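Job type: complex structure
Entries:
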Amino acid sequence: MRYEKGHKESTRQQITEVASKQFRDQGVSAVGLAAIMADAGLTNGAFYTHFSSKNDLVRECVEQTLDAQLQAISRNISEHGLEAVLRQYLSPSHRDDRGHGCPSAALLPEISRQSPEIRHAYTARFNAVIEVIAQQLPGHDPDDAHQTARAMFALVVGSLQLARAVDDPALSDDILEGAIAAVLRLAARPSKA
Amino acid sequence: MRYEKGHKESTRQQITEVASKQFRDQGVSAVGLAAIMADAGLTNGAFYTHFSSKNDLVRECVEQTLDAQLQAISRNISEHGLEAVLRQYLSPSHRDDRGHGCPSAALLPEISRQSPEIRHAYTARFNAVIEVIAQQLPGHDPDDAHQTARAMFALVVGSLQLARAVDDPALSDDILEGAIAAVLRLAARPSKA
DNA sequence: AATATCACATTACGATCATAATGCAATAAG
DNA sequence: CTTATTGCATTATGATCGTAATGTGATATT
């Protein structure tokens, strides 16, 4: 045994954190394992003592980042309310920090092209976030609350992607602000419940 | 001259069409030039007589697919109305045919990581589509119409991405249907104009 | 104190990456 | 009819891809 007891676990965690950032920054297929390992302070060869394949690492990253996002959203909703979470999600600072931001906004089209187990992991955590959002829509009946929550999620994800894609800073800001207003309209209690 | 007069132009067009499909199917960074050229019935070496780089090809594909989408949307809106275009965009057949579908839904996070000229080309065409949608929102004042149009666009793009990512077919259908309802709510004439 | 373990480094595999130099053959231009 | 042009194929570049075999040295175990 060359290293102390908890060493392997902390190294594995370091790899997934570095990889999660690089994947969101540059895209899953644009990042090589060598770059991830180097950024984690290791070399190529150590990778396969921690993961069985790149697909395995991607799955781990998707699960961890989505779990962390769910926890953060749940806590912030109970502490500050839905609108505060919304404004934070659609903020310039979130737009400008892809590497630590929403995995859906950074990777959603790529996730749809990943292996079945990754898509399955994504689906479960997507449903969990929708559940949390739907519980914040009291005026809606249960089915409608879930449909509306999904639309709200799609709207903020799409808006963040658009705000990152356009090259006009003023337009990018307008996209974020318009999205906040639109999501609040969707969340509002329907005229006839 | 080994080939007839219009040959080079039609070959170039063939390359961009094949590339546009492969990029949307598999992602820009996941597709190699050799695979594109082979699918176009050519070999590696012919690429650089048509394009100066892969970035150049990507720009051409983004421009062509977005221009075609704008024309299709404009025509279908004037022929069948906004709601029909919406229902077609959020249809299972569009979800299941990435390669010929909306470039934004297939590539938006990747576009935000592309070169400045590609992001600039995207921005101009995004604004053009928003203009067309905004003109279909008569109850809104001009600024609000554009904000709402952007939110509607973000909502349909995000929803299509989600419908493609989840591995539960029933959920995927629900996402599409819920998105239609939500977009129509956003498009509805605001209570106080 | 001796030994076995194992998390890493080193090195390398064949494949593919974007890019490019060179060769060629058929057609357009003369 | 000759010749110059050029759109493509062939071939090759060094780099990087995901994956894997092998080496090694410090620690946990004995």
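Summary: The two ends of chain B are 65 Å apart (CA to CA). Chain B touches chain A through 53 residues (CB under 8 Å).
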